[in-house]
Design the sequence.
C-alpha cells in the first residue's frame, strides 16, 4: 500500500501496533515491524534502563523502522527521552498529556513524532505543536481513554475536519474490515492494540490472553474516570472500582484502591481477579492467540476483501 502513513514511517502497510503497557516488548514490536507494520515499544511499563535494553534487542531483531510509545505522565520522562535520543529511535508516539512538551525537542533530533488524542480540540493542539501525525483514539479502546467517551466512528471525521495531518484511527479496530471503515471516514491508517496484545509475541501473561479470548460483548467497561479513564475487564478488582464509583468516592480513595503495580499484577503476572486488566471492546471478537505474522496477513486479506465488496456495491 502507498499512502502518507507508509511514506512517513517507511513501512509497507499503514498499520501501527499500539505501545501497550505490559504487552509491547521487543518481541512484539520487532515482529510487527518485520511483517510490514510499525512496531512500538511500550515505555509506560519500563524503567529507563529496561527500555534501553528493549530498544537494543529490537534493533537486533529487525532492520525495519520501529518506535516507542511514551505516556507524558511517566515519572522518569526526561530519562526516557534521553535514552530514546541516545539510541537513535526513529519514531516516538506520545500520549496522555500535552504534545508541546517534547515534540520540537524530538524533531530537532530527527525523530518522527505522533501524538494520541481523543478530541478534535486536542488535534488542533497537536498541529500547533508541530507533530508529524495524529492518532485519534475512540473510547472503544483499551487502556487509558478519553473522558468524552467519543466513539471512533464519530471522532475520525471530526478530527479530519480540523486538520490535514496524517491521521491514524485507533479504538475498536481489530480486523481489516474495520481498517477499511476507518480509512473511509478519513484516516490514513490505523493503530491496533488489543489484537496485538493477544498475540503469541505479546509479553502479556498467557492466562490474561486466554481470558480475553473468551470475552463477550459488554465484558469491558470504562472505569477510574476520576483519576484517568481506563477500559477494564469486569473482574473482582473492577467490581470494587465500580462500587466505589457508585458511592461517589473521591479521586484519592480511587488511588488508594488502585495502589501500585495493579496493571502489572493483572496483565503481566496473570492475577485475573485482583489485577487491573486493560483491553478494548474489540476483545469480544478475538477468539484465539495468533502469531503476529498471521495477524498481519489476516488484516491485509480482510481489508482487500472488504474493499472488493464495497467496490462491487451497486448504488
Sequence:
Amino acid at each position: 500500500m502507498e499512502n502518507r502513513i507508509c511514506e512517513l514511517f517507511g513501512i509497507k502497510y499503514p498499520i501501527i501496533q499500539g505501545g501497550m503497557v505490559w504487552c509491547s516488548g521487543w518481541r512484539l514490536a520487532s515482529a510487527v515491524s518485520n511483517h510490514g507494520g510499525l512496531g512500538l515499544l511500550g515505555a509506560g511499563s519500563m524503567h529507563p534502563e529496561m527500555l534501553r535494553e528493549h530498544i537494543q534487542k529490537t534493533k537486533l531483531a529487525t532492520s525495519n523502522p520501529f518506535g516507542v510509545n511514551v505516556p507524558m505522565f511517566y515519572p522518569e520522562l526526561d530519562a526516557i527521552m534521553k535514552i530514546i535520543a541516545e539510541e537513535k529511535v526513529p519514531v516516538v508516539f506520545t500520549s496522555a498529556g500535552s504534545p508541546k512538551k517534547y515534540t520540537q525537542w524530538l524533531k530537532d533530533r530527527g525523530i518522527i513524532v505522533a501524538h494520541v488524542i481523543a478530541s478534535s480540540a486536542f488535534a488542533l493542539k497537536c498541529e500547533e505543536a508541530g507533530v508529524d501525525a495524529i492518532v485519534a483514539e475512540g473510547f472503544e479502546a483499551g487502556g487509558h481513554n478519553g473522558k468524552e467517551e467519543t466513539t471512533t466512528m464519530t471522532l475520525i471525521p471530526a478530527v479530519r475536519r480540523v486538520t490535514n495531518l496524517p491521521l491514524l484511527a485507533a479504538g475498536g479496530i481489530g480486523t481489516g474490515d474495520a481498517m477499511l471503515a476507518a480509512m473511509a471516514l478519513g484516516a490514513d491508517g490505523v493503530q491496533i492494540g488489543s489484537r496485538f496484545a493477544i498475540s503469541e509475541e505479546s509479553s502479556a501473561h498467557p492466562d490474561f490472553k486466554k481470558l480475553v479470548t473468551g470475552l463477550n460483548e459488554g465484558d469491558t467497561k470504562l472505569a477510574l474516570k476520576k483519576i484517568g479513564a481506563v477500559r477494564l475487564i469486569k473482574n473482582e478488582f473492577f467490581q470494587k472500582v465500580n462500587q466505589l464509583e457508585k458511592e461517589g468516592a473521591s479521586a484519592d480513595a480511587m488511588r488508594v484502591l488502585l495502589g501500585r503495580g495493579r496493571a502489572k499484577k493483572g496483565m503481566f503476572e496473570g492475577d485475573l481477579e485482583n489485577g487491573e486488566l486493560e483491553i478494548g471492546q474489540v476483545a469480544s471478537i478475538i477468539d484465539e492467540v495468533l502469531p503476529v505474522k498471521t495477524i498481519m496477513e489476516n488484516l491485509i486479506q480482510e481489508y482487500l476483501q472488504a474493499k472488493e465488496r464495497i467496490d462491487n456495491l451497486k448504488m
Observations:
- The chain has a mean pLDDT of 95.
- The two ends are 27 Å apart (CA to CA).
- The chain has two domains: 4-204+288-311, 206-282.
- The chain has 14 helices and eleven strands.
